[in-house]
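Hi C.,

You asked whether I'd gotten around to modeling the 287-residue construct. I have! Everything is below, sequence then structure, no commentary in between.
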Amino acid sequence: MSKNIYIIGVGLIGGSFAIELKKLFPDSNLIGIDNSKQNLISAKRLKIIDTSGTVNNIINPFIILLAIPVKSIIEILPNVLNKVNPNTIVLDFGSTKNSICKSVIKHKNRSNFIAAHPIAGTEFSGPSAAHHGLFKNKNIIICDREKTNDEVIDKAIKIFSKMKMKVTYMNSISHDKHIAYVSHLSHLSSFMLGKTVMDEEENEKNIFDMAGSGFESTVRLAKSSPKMWTDIFDDNKVNVLKSLSDYIYNLELIKNLIEKSEFKELELQLKKTNYIKKILKGINYEE
């Protein structure tokens, strides 16, 4: 009997995971669920999914992945957990974890659920952006592992390992705190750098004529989905505000050093920050 795999959200992340699952389970039945009919049409045309369905029509699921915005996960997840078998693996790939975990803490089938965050992605979205190898050598963080059945966890880890992913564990509160700094803040910074330049430059051609690879790489994240990131900033508001306050403090510090022509101290601060090259060496981090 073929395995029913449900992909809720057939964009970049969900679509790429579906591609990997099809390679691992070639006889499986990949069923896409998405609010966008166009996404479902594209995903089927690209052979990412075999057919489409709805949450209410989930039957005998082997794996259910929720790769949709955080607020939508919170809304849908309890109903998804109502559809599981004892051995069903339910995953969410949301960028925040604590509110999602809290939403099903008392659900009778909570032990089937794995709160996971693959540290992978690009600035592109939709089924056409999905591709093989997106998750290779990337970290996947599993939160509140003790809440999930050991057999479900073991099966999921085997799948992640076959995809060449590196598994780490964290509690959901710590995850949301740290991800605000290393991911959410970088997206905010990218959006605001793009806004600052666009506000100043009335002639867009000047931006493209003068912009080098440094500017392009820094604002790359500003191409990401505004709706998705607004949801993330909303859900992780407290941690995002803390990281933003710290960032503004350091911007003000550098601004004051330049104003006072304290360039030796400025160079010292830049040298201290330059140490990040050693910290990040060998880390393939992308969100």
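If it helps when you're writing up: The chain has a mean pLDDT of 90.

Thanks,
B.
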